[in-house]
Amino acid sequence: MNQTLKKPVSIQKVILRLLLYFVVLDVCIITLYPYFAMFTTALKSRVEIFSSNGTILPVTALWSNFIEIWSRAPMGRYMLNSFLIAGGSTIIAMLCGIPAAYALARMKFKGQTAFLGFVIVSQMFAPVVLLIGIYQVMQALGLTDSIVGLIFINAAFNQAFTIWLLRGTFMGISAEMEQAATIDGCNRLQSMLKVLLPVAAPGIVTTLIFIFINAWNEYTVALCLISTDTLKPLTVGINTFNGYNMIEWQYLFAASIFAVIPVVILFMCIEKNLVSGLASGGVKG
Amino acid sequence: MNKKILRRAEPYLWIAPSVILMAIFIVTPILKVFQMAGNKVSRTGQLRGFNNFENFATVLKNPTFGLVLKNTIVWTIAVVVLSTVLGFVLALILNNKFRGRKIARAIVVFPWATTLVIQASAWNFIINTDYGTLNTLLMKLGILSAPMNWTPTPEAYFAWEIACGIFVTVPFVTFCVLSGLQSIDTTYYEAATVDGANYWQKLFKITLPLVKSSLTVSTVLNIIYVFNSFPIIWTMTKGDPANHTDTLVTYLYKLAFYNGRQGEAAAVSVIGFIILLICASTYMIYTLRKGDDEL
Question: Which ipTM did the prediction report?
Answer without folding.
Answer: 0.83
